[in-house]
Amino acid sequence: MSQDNKKYGEEEGEEDKSLTMTGVDDDDDDDDDDDDLDTFTDGDLDSGCEDGVLGCRDPFSSEVKPRILLMGLRRSGKSSIQKVVFHKMSPNETLFLESTNKICREDVSNSSFVHFQIWDFPGQIDFFDPTFDYEMIFRGTGALIFVIDSQDDYVEALSRLHLTVTRAYKVNPDINFEVFIHKVDGLSDDHKIEKQRDIHKRANDDLVDAALERIHLSFYLTSIYDHSIFEAFSKVVQKLIPQLPTLENLLNIFISNSGIEKAFLFDVVSKIYIATDSSPVDMQTYELCCDMIDVVIDISCIYGVTGDEGGIPYDKESMAIIRLNSTTVMYLKEVTKFLALVCFLREESFERKGLIDYNFHCFRKAIQEVFEVRLKVLRSRKLLSQRRRSRQATPNGTPRVPS
Ligand SMILES: Nc1nc2c(ncn2[C@@H]2O[C@H](COP(=O)(O)OP(=O)(O)OP(=O)(O)O)[C@@H](O)[C@H]2O)c(=O)[nH]1
Questions:
Q1: What is the whole-number distance in angstroms between the Cα of residue 77 and the centre of ligand 1?
Q2: Which of 16, 74, 75, 229 to mutate for ligand 1's pocket (most ligand atoms within 8 Å of CB)?
Q3: 101 Cα nearest atom in ligand 1
Q4: pLDDT digits (tens, 9 = 90+) for 259-303
Q5: Ligand 1 site: residues with CB under 6 angstroms?
Q6: Could you read off the pLDDT of 49-90 as tens digits, one per residue?
Q7: Which residue intervals of 123-211 are DSSP H helices?
Q8: Phi-psi category of 217—alpha, beta or left, where left has phi over 0 and alpha has psi -120 to 50?
Q9: Does the interface ipTM go beyond 0.95?
Q10: Less CB within 10 Å around the terminal CB: N or C of the chain?
């Protein structure tokens, strides 16, 4: 199963791009990428960061890509997290990952809503290294994930966290600070809670001592050996989706009119849920959704027909119904090329499938409208940047007269 998934994720064309500490892209075929060395060290980039929490935008690009940084001490598990969540690497394979010695950047844009860049940093970043332009990096950042190895002594990690957070906050106070208390698979439930409480207290005490209590840190218990890492990443990504309240509202309306107990909107490739209704999420429900997506994709890989472009065995016809022992039904339906709606409902509610399907039709239409607005915004941005570009291309900066 994991092999198929791996291919599926990789075929999406997620590129691995590496940058050294100074931002030198050593990938030859990446020359025409907007974010290569020139842009990375170019002061112009600052002017592209006008979108604050949304992340950094190249001055000439139409797309805003929130930047998510993965930081933490060596061997804390940063690269493993990235590989497991976005490359479908099986957790055991991460044992053979080599230490990262340069910044690795990856674009994640396999979903209509989920577009961001992940920057995986080497364990020990020297903020005082003059070649490391941390101001420029933090200025364009939407979320900073700091990974702490919970199986190791975390005193050093906590002082590193404090240094990183305070530096980043000074540059960009809009960054979301997310702390992953990682590798909790080796801990008992009591031990997990105890660690979380201790780390939470120490990290916040350090901030209070530095008179920076206004900095908010969010904590998550994570492991690559279960779904906790996907759930934590989902929450990090959701904070970067400006349409989130609209999506949540649509889901609330949909479930309350259809007798559905819980609904998630999933990015199928990464299994990140980009929105859910307002009732609380429990881990087991989330795990069942992930398993259902795996089943649908695996069966489609074996029996489905891939389109002309090949690769994605997921289309308009994709849907699945799974009846659980507990008289609960799981219902999955395609929403867009990349998104799936996964719902939980009682068997008796599922008898009104016609009503559910009609409501789903309305829900899908509403989602498409949200997309259209997004596309319109992107188009107008593109137009604006094209104008800006042509203005800069003229020798004295005066606008060109259209022929
Ligand atoms: N038990 C356990 N081990 C993990 C987990 N995540 C990562 N590891 C292991 O931790 C080790 C280090 O993982 P890496 O992903 O290379 O760590 P890193 O933070 O990227 O390390 P650098 O590149 O040196 O900064 C590997 O052997 C992983 O298998 C986890 O959730 N649980």
A1: 3
A2: 75
A3: 23
A4: 999 999 998 888 889 899 999 888 889 999 999 998 888 888 887
A5: 72, 74-80, 94-95, 97, 99-100, 122-123, 182-183, 185-186, 223-225
A6: 333 223 333 333 445 577 899 999 999 999 999 999 888 889
A7: 134-139, 155-171, 189-209
A8: beta
A9: yes
A10: C
